[in-house]
Amino acid sequence: MTEEQPYVKHEASLGLFEKYLTLWIAICIIVGLLLGRFLPQFGQFMDSLKFNKLSIPIGILLFFMMYPTVVGIRFSDIRKAAHNPKPLLVTIIANWVVAPIIMTIYANVLLAGNPQYIAGVILLGLSPCTAMVMWWMFLAKGDMAQGLINTAINALLMLALYAPLAAFYLGVSSIPVPWDLIATSVLIFIALPVAAGAISRKLILEKKGEGWFNNTYIPTLGKISIVALLTTLIVLFSFEGEVILNDPLLVAYLAAPNLLHYATMIT
Question: pTM for the full model?
């Protein structure tokens, strides 16, 4: 079989794990908070594992969240997107034109006087979700082919747009631009999984064929990506579990622009 084999849509079926994914997410958040509160040494140790100010554990986990998405990219599908450009154009405009502006405005208005918080919120607003999009699409029984195309284009656009847009919107907010940190983040969190996905896809298709790739390899990666997501939640919330539980008003303060941003984007 060749890589150009037509896409065949299969009826989605949810297992126990996928069906109650929201519950597992909530449990992992609680576990992370409790670890941070009652076993702060765990969070401190994980947070100490860094490379150029970037968390090594989070980098590894994000790789296993991102890689399953980009390894499924078929560039023939990307070319086919030109025949139905509306969903793709809406995604691109929403993620790369509208979302950054809205998040920058909310961050500067609601977090005025706290440049560190403003910078974090802006950088978050510039990071469109890619790692779990296909799983949410699967759970919603959406158009998986279109979802893959949108996600693939988003991942590729992140390579070109994230760094310059981050520099622009941080500059607009009068915040020094950490060029080295942004460049390292793009290389490790985006370029690495995209390159690994393209190379491994080619090698696996040549050796195993598209049937094994689609029916065995991709489903296995999907489960790994969910485990990576849940583990990421535990680790992230363990970093600041004590702070979150002791100062919930700070959490609400930082959550305000994010919630407004989310509400604005879905309306």
Answer: 0.71
